[in-house]
Specification:
Structural class: alpha/beta
Largest sheet: 7 strands, mixed
Shape: globular
Order of helices and strands: EEEHEEEEHHEHEHEEHEHEHHEHE
Length: 311
């Protein structure tokens, strides 16, 4: 068997990310060995790569084939096509993945599509769940051109919500309406009217600060990212006036403590297979281009998701 390779941090390399030989993964009884065929990038792991020590292995999202099933008999069979999630180290040729974080893929769902599901798709799915039944309710999605926002707009529309998408530029509006948004608001400020039952907020800074005043009485704002700024100033009186509104701090790996990733991954795969949602992949490249693609992601040179494929 050829040596295993993975993406690791090298502070001396351009972009700090290189592909190097690493140790073969050792599987526990409840873990399957997966041969990875596609990975996708998220701002969180790329941002951490910019600060991490040499040798750290980033990566959350993966899709591939079961090379060796879990010894305890759980999870997919050998040869099954799967999507999976790891807290780190997913960007490698072979990885050990707990079966509770794996879901088998329908034949019509590609590895590239599946690689977008774990962080972006599950974050949107669980974030929207904080709003309860969405049928007929007003939902705002900020940062709607990003990976999470893309899924959130589609899933909220499918759930029967009236969906408003927030974007920075007017030229992004047509694509967001095609995605399923009923309305689009532009700029960093969220107008206080109309009000929303649920806000999925990933921008931070001024956007989050103004969004809090746009909550309906008893509404929920789920904050799950800070792509603009982690520091937020808001009008407390306007927030008080919303009445029993909630600001919910969201972290995916904490949320998965109450429901295994496999459950949500299976739901997303079935929705894509049925044509009810579609991942937005802006960039698909060989994984040898990891450093450049990571830099382009952080510089916002493309919307949606970037997927890297392995031979």
């Amino acid at each position: 068997m050829p040596a295993n390779r993975a993406v690791v941090v090298d502070p001396e390399a351009p972009g700090r990310l290189v592909i190097q030989p690493v140790a073969e993964p050792v599987t526990d009884r409840g873990e399957a060995l997966v041969r990875v065929r596609a990975i996708s990038l998220n701002r969180g792991e790329v941002r951490r790569s910019g600060m991490a020590a040499a040798g750290w292995r980033p990566g959350w999202d993966l899709a591939g084939l079961i090379e060796r099933p879990a010894a305890d008999g759980s999870g997919p069979r050998a040869g099954a096509r799967v999507v999976g999630l790891l807290p780190e180290g997913a960007w490698a040729e072979r990885v050990a993945v707990p079966t509770h974080a794996l879901a088998e893929l329908p034949d019509t769902v590609t590895f590239s599509q599946a690689a977008t599901f774990p962080v972006a798709g599950l974050t949107a799915l669980h974030g929207l769940g904080k709003g309860g039944l969405l049928l007929g309710r007003r939902v705002l999605v900020t940062g709607a051109t990003g990976g999470v926002g893309d899924f959130a707009v589609q899933l909220a529309r499918r759930a029967g919500a009236h969906v408003t998408a927030s974007a920075r530029r007017a030229d992004q509006a047509p694509a967001l309406r095609q995605l399923g948004a009923h309305e689009v608001v532009l700029g960093d400020d969220i107008p206080p009217s109309p009000s929303y039952d649920l806000i999925i907020e990933s921008v931070g800074g001024r956007t989050l600060g103004t969004a809090l005043a746009a909550l309906e009485r008893g509404g929920v704002c789920v904050t799950l990212g800070v792509s603009a700024s982690a520091e937020v100033t808001f009008d407390t009186r306007a927030f008080f006036a919303t009445g029993r509104a909630t600001l919910y701090g969201f972290y995916l790996f904490t949320e998965l403590g109450s429901e295994p990733a496999s459950v949500g991954l299976r739901r997303l795969a079935e929705l894509v297979a049925a044509g009810q949602i579609a991942p937005h992949i802006s960039l698909e490249r060989p994984w040898a281009e990891i450093s450049q693609v990571a830099q382009d992601l952080m510089a916002r040179r493309f919307p949606g998701k970037a997927v890297l494929t392995l031979d």
